[in-house]
User: Which sequence fits this backbone?
């Protein structure tokens, strides 16, 4: 039997700018050291983890297969360390890793093309989205998305009238503690809720712009390794996100518990449940504090490696 080809891609953590990015503000994201691997080998019929590609839980992989226009069927296997539904980019990572494995088989492994395809797939499967998750899973390391082109441009992505410029954004090695609330929340309705507020209220619109400033200040603070300033900005960002209606009582509990041993803490991703992130140099203590109030903690580190073919 032919040897499998494989590719892996990292999960992601949005550090600053979620929701505001939907309105053209910048957002900062880092890849994390939890990865998804996809293996592919020629087979008599299409299979994924031994099951049908039509199983709804494989819709991202199915879309990747359809777009890759493979001539012959494959047997795909997925191995993932990224918890699903926790805002850590598991769907982006599986999409990017699947596209990476399929591209390797065709001898056409091209990260910018993978980033664009993966964004289209997320858009197709989950509706309105920014390309930050899929581009971070592709590029690895720190990624800044902005509406205009700056230094260290990785690639641009356009859709309808919208255009995102993805930039490489070096970050120091950092440890974060994630606290998963255990509450799943769909991104689409949360994004729609913020849009309603922004359309109805100039105050909400100015909060979105304020998040944009916080993102750029947060980036400078992290690059200077000024964790005190970065933490303070995370706390401010959390306050604004809460006012925009994407908080949750359980997020508040985890954030409050984590802050006792952290520089700062905020929700990460879409909110409404999902996960929070704490910046801390006492990760074990912070993880325990999160556990004590009913959250599920994960320690993660920044990961510089994006999509890659596996030997
Ligand atoms: O649900 P997540 O973790 O992919 O985060 C969504 C981030 C938003 O800014 C709310 C939406 C987006 O696509 O950027």
Assistant:
């Amino acid at each position: 039997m032919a040897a499998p080809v494989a590719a892996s891609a990292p999960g992601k953590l949005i550090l600053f700018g979620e929701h505001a990015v939907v309105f053209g503000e910048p957002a900062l994201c880092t890849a994390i050291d939890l990865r998804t691997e996809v293996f592919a080998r020629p087979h008599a019929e299409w299979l994924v983890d031994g099951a049908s590609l039509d199983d709804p839980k494989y819709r991202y992989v199915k879309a990747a297969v359809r777009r890759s226009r493979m001539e012959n069927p494959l047997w795909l296997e997925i191995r993932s360390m990224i918890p699903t539904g926790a805002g850590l980019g598991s769907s982006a990572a599986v999409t990017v890793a699947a596209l990476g494995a399929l591209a390797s088989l065709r001898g056409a492994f091209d990260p910018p093309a993978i980033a664009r395809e993966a964004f289209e797939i997320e858009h197709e499967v989950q509706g309105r989205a920014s390309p930050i998750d899929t581009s971070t899973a592709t590029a690895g390391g720190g990624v800044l998305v902005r509406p205009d082109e700056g230094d260290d441009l990785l690639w641009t992505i356009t859709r309808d009238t919208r255009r995102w410029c993805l930039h490489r954004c070096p970050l120091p090695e950092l440890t974060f503690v994630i606290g998963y609330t255990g509450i799943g929340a769909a991104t689409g309705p949360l994004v729609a809720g913020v849009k309603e507020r922004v359309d109805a209220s100039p105050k909400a619109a100015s909060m979105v712009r304020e998040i944009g400033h916080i993102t750029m200040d947060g980036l400078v603070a992290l690059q200077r390794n000024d964790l005190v300033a970065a933490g303070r900005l995370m706390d401010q960002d959390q306050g604004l996100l809460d006012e925009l209606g994407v908080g949750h009582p359980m997020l508040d509990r985890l954030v409050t518990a984590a802050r006792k041993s952290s520089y700062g803490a905020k929700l990460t991703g879409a909110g409404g449940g999902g996960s929070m992130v704490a910046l801390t140099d006492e990760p074990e203590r912070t993880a325990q504090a999160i556990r004590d109030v009913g959250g599920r903690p994960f320690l993660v580190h920044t990961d510089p490696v994006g999509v890659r073919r596996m030997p």
Q: What stands out?
A: The pocket of PMV is lined by residues 14, 18-19, 21-22, 87, 129-130, 132-133, 187, 191, 269-270 (CB under 6 Å). The two ends are 17 Å apart (CA to CA). The chain is about 40% helix and 25% strand.
